[in-house]
Amino acid sequence: MALLAADERPLRQVIAYEPVIRPFGLDVLPDLKAADESADRDAAVEIVHRRIAGLDEAVVDALRADPEVWGALRGLAAPIYAEMAALYGEPAPDSLARRADRVDLIVGGTNRGTAPYGTSFDDVARRVPRAGVHELPGQGHMAHLQAPAELARLLEAVATAG
C-alpha cells in the first residue's frame, strides 16, 4: 500500500518488509473469503500461516498454545481477506513508488528467491529498480514474531541511513 501511495503523492522514504504483489495468495483467496464471511479468525490464521507462510503444523500448534499470541494473530487476521483481495482489484502497475525520494525493500534471507514471499518480493523489486534491497539474514516473513529485535535494528539502520 505504501508503494502505491508513493505513486500518488511525494514521500521522503518508503520502507517495505517483504511486500507482495499479485499473483501472491491467489490460490488461498477463496478459502480466506469463506473464513471472512463466517468470521472464522482461527481458520484465517491457519490459512495464512500454514498455506501461505508454509509453517509446519508443530509451529502453528505452538502459536495456538499461547493464548496471547494466538489472540494477537486472530486480531491481525481480521482484514486479511480484504487486503489479499485488494491485490486483485486493479492490474498490477509496471512501476511503483515513483514519487518517493527513497525506497528500501527488506527481504528475509530464508525467503530470498523462494515462493511465495521471495518470488513476490522479486516481482516488487523489479517494479522499483532504484530501491535499496536489504536482507535480514536467517529470517522469513515472520521476523516480527521470531526476531523482532533484529528486524527493529535493521529498520532503524535503513531509516537513518543516507
Descriptive overview:
51% of the residues lie in helices and 13% in strands. The protein has helices spanning 2-8, 29-37, 41-52, 57-65, 67-77, 80-86, 117-127, 143-146, 148-160; strands spanning 11-17, 100-108, 132-136. A three-stranded parallel β-sheet has the order 1-2-3, with helices on both faces. α2 (29-37) packs antiparallel against α3. The chain is globular, with a radius of gyration of 16 Å.
Q: Which key features would you list for this structure?
A:
three-stranded parallel sheet, 9 helices, alpha/beta, 162 residues, globular, 3 strands
* Number of distinct helices: 9
Beta-strand percentage range: 5-15%
Overall 3D form: globular
Order of helices and strands: HEHHHHHEHEHH
Short description:
The chain is α/β, with parallel strands linked by helices and 162 residues long. It has helices spanning 2-8, 29-37, 41-52, 57-65, 67-77, 80-86, 117-127, 143-146, 148-160; strands at 11-17, 100-108, 132-136.
Helices and strands in order, then pairings?
Elements: H1 2-8, E1 11-17, H2 29-37, H3 41-52, H4 57-65, H5 67-77, H6 80-86, E2 100-108, H7 117-127, E3 132-136, H8 143-146, H9 148-160
Parallel strand pairs: 1-2, 2-3
Helix pairs in contact: 2-3, 2-6, 3-5
